[in-house]
Amino acid sequence: MTWKIVKLSLKTIFNNKMRSFLTMLGIIIGVMAVVILVSITQGAASGITDSISDMGSQQITATISSEEVSITADSVESLSSYPTISGIAPVISTSKTVKKNSNTGNYSVVGVTPSYFTVQDMDIQRGRKIVDSDVEWNTKVCVIGTEVATDLFGTWDAVNGTIIVGDSLYKVVGVLEEQGSSLAGSDDNKILIPYSTASRMTGQTGMNRFYIKAASENTVSAAISSVEMFLLQATRDEEAYDVSNQSDVLDTMDDVTNTMSLLLAGIAAISLLVGGIGIMNIMLVSVTERTREIGIRKAVGAKRKHIMLQFLCEACILSVLGGLIGLALSIAIIEIYNLIAKAAVAMNWSVAIAAIAFCALIGVLFGGYPAAKASRLQPIDALHTS
User: Fold this and answer.
1) Which of 164-173, 182-191, 292-301 has the lowest mean pLDDT?
2) Distances from the Cα of 104 to the Cα of 39, 96, 174, 197, angstroms
3) What are phi and psi for residue 324, nearest 5 degrees?
4) How far apart are CA 217 and CA 116, in angstroms?
């Protein structure tokens, strides 16, 4: 009997193809919205998380936010004596117009010490790094990122070339390994110069940021405490600085991702509910149009539960079929998105399965009232009405 009801429901649905499609449209759009948006959001978050993880869990960043506070590179070097800290890298950052013949661009110029490359785990693909003598003698040399090299020289082989940074001529002594983009930006479009040279260029005696590398993953918390204690003693103001490490950023990213996923799922759920209301509306119209059919079936012995099951089955099939179509379209759109954006967004199958289950629930909830109304029709009244 159940299979006969399913066959009859399918026959009714496919006999009214356009109406059935329009009825399913709200469900299709709702499923596409929830699957695509959540998958892309979580895919983007996963990429950012991987990028942060690649930066190293031992890295700590200290930012001086107050312009009234001046902390020198020599003063932070005292932190190197702590057993929980393996390296300190003070930096001075600015932005300058850089020229090479007719090629011009605006790039981030960062004053660094030799320890910067170790703390940041950065390698050189050509030439050499900034060395102690460069800092000691305020030499006008630089190490450039691959993007800078390509923009200004047309090639990564830019060692021994010269560029004009601001108003001064600098010799390129090295080119960084290609880093790619990360949450903190890209090192490919940076120009690294000796710390002392940057200090003279900007007129800054103090730094605006420094990086710390903990001795091990187990000493990160102790290293952060040491840095915070040092900065509090130096600034006398807890609001003048900020200390963070990658685990803090990862925790924040997880919170933001979860919130965004819930928000998007909520919006998509509303769309599915609107689709459910459309199903209920069409089913009520269908009950009215098929009053004679219902009367005849009851007159020849169909029980109330059979009538109710048929209409409930039709509502569920419409809802689940709409969900499956929406899922198929979602898979296709995600694949197209990956090809166009050169991304690697993966289908979130747990969300997809949950969406289909929700569609079935919508079919039961919103098909229940029309099914109950159809089952309550009396044969005489139904035949008389028709």
Assistant:
1) 292-301
2) 40, 11, 19, 21
3) -65, -40
4) 19
Q: Give the pLDDT band of residue 131 (cuts 50, 70, 90).
A: very high
Min mean pLDDT across 190-199, 229-238, 320-329 is at 229-238
Q: Is the dihedral of CA 327, 329, 330, 335 positive or negative?
A: positive
Evaluated on CA atoms 117, 210, 97, 169, the torsion sign reads negative
Indicate the pLDDT class of residue 149, thresholds 50, 70 and 90: very high
Pairing type for strands 124-127 and 168-176 reads: antiparallel
CA distance 245 to 347: 31
Residues sharing a CB contact under 8 Å with residue 25, sequence separation 6 or more, in sequence order: 275, 278, 322
Look at residue 141 in the predicted model and tell me its pLDDT: 96
pLDDT value, residue 105:
92
- Which of 251, 237, 188 lies closest to 57 in space, CA to CA? 251
Report the alpha-carbon distance of residue 227 to residue 312 in Å, rounded: 66
Question: Which residues share a beta bridge with 162?
Answer: 171
Domain residue ranges in the chain: 2-51+251-385, 70-236
How many CB atoms are located within 10 Å of the residue 182 CB?
A: 15
**Is 201 within 8 Å of 98 (Cβ atoms)?**
no
Bridge partners for 144 per DSSP = 175, 191
Neighbouring-strand partners of residue 99: 104, 164
Residues ≥6 apart with Cβ < 8 Å to 135? 113, 114, 194, 195, 196, 197
